Amino acid sequence: METEPAVPHHNAPAAGSKLGVHYAQCFGCGDEQEAGLHLQSTVGEGRTVHSQFTVTEAHQGAPGLAHGGLLACAFDEALGATVGNLLRKPAVTGRLETDFRRPVPVGSILYIAATLDGTAGRKIYVSADGRLDAEDGPIAVRARGLFVMVGLEHFTTHGDPEALEKFREAARNNREDWNINP
Ligand SMILES: CCCCCCCC(=O)SCCNC(=O)CCNC(=O)[C@H](O)C(C)(C)COP(=O)(O)OP(=O)(O)OC[C@H]1O[C@@H](n2cnc3c(N)ncnc32)[C@H](O)[C@@H]1OP(=O)(O)O
């Protein structure tokens, strides 16, 4: 199947919009996960989303340095936020590749710029660069993801139905932040 340019949903938030927390318990962005990444994202021009996260002591692998798997988590979140908010269709990560180019010290801020690269049927291709301490800082991590669009039954069948209902209630009350309906 041929890859086509990804076309943002007509209700996708405009450039400059700050994206809210999509789920309070999410390790990537949730505000009820004390040791989580607390990633914050803003829609950029075109098919881009800019995210930031501050590396804390809770995120270490080696002393004073971020754990690689945790950095991959930040990219999963940043890419997922890009897919979810620009396309406004439920999708999950099928494949995530990360290139670790420089160590990321505790205390640094990672600036992640993600772009929707294209779609092919249910497949969504998305990629991102993570730069150290400034939007034009040196690239520390690069990632490419393949997300797969899923029906809401993916979450009802495999997830926690009670938590999902609370999530849907929050989404109904805050449609501007997140819309789980395709
Ligand atoms: C705002 C939101 C932010 C959220 C950020 C966090 C996002 C996440 O972390 S999601 C959690 C992690 N991911 C998961 O748990 C997903 C687990 N995997 C699954 O449920 C399934 O394997 C799933 C849904 C991805 C695909 O299964 P299924 O629906 O049966 O589709 P399937 O036919 O296998 O694949 C669809 C297409 O994707 C392709 N594909 C699926 N997985 C991969 C992969 N790993 N590599 C390459 N291609 C793949 C298939 O080849 C197929 O391609 P084609 O249409 O060309 O034949």
Helix-strand layout with pairing:
Elements: E1 18-19, E2 40-43, E3 48-54, H1 68-87, E4 91-100, E5 109-120, E6 123-132, E7 139-149, H2 153-158, H3 161-173
Antiparallel strand pairs: 1-2, 2-3, 3-5, 4-7, 5-6, 6-7
Bound molecules: octanoyl-coenzyme A.
Residues 1, 22, 28, 76-77, 80-81, 84, 92-95, 121-123, 146, 148, 150 line the site of octanoyl-coenzyme A (CO8).
Tell me what you see in this structure.
- There is one protein chain.
- The protein is of the alpha+beta class and 182 residues long.
- The protein has one domain: Roll (Thiol Ester Dehydrase, Chain A), CATH 3.10.129.
- It is 21% helix and 31% strand.
- The chain has a seven-stranded antiparallel sheet, covered by helices on one side.
- A hairpin with a 2-residue loop joins strand 5 and strand 6.
- It is globular, with a radius of gyration of 16 Å.
- Octanoyl-coenzyme A binds at residues 1, 22, 28, 76-77, 80-81, 84, 92-95, 121-123, 146, 148, 150.
Distance from N terminus to C terminus (CA atoms, Å) equals: 22 Å
> What's the average pLDDT?
92
Q: How many β-strand runs?
A: 7
Number of domains: 1
Second CATH tier, the architecture: Roll
Side by side, the strands of the main sheet go 1-2-3-5-6-7-4
Query: What is the helix fraction of residues, given as a range?
Result: 10-25%
Main β-sheet: number of strands, strand sense, barrel status? 7 strands, antiparallel
Could you state the order of secondary-structure elements as H and E? EEEHEEEEHH
Structural class: alpha+beta
Helix tally? Answer: 3
The CATH superfamily is identified as: Hotdog Thioesterase
- Rg calc: 16 Å
CATH topology: Thiol Ester Dehydrase, Chain A
Shape: globular
* Percent in strands: 25-35%
Bound molecules: octanoyl-coenzyme A
Low-confidence stretches at least 5 residues in length (pLDDT < 50)? none
> What is the CATH class designation?
Alpha Beta
Oligomer: single chain
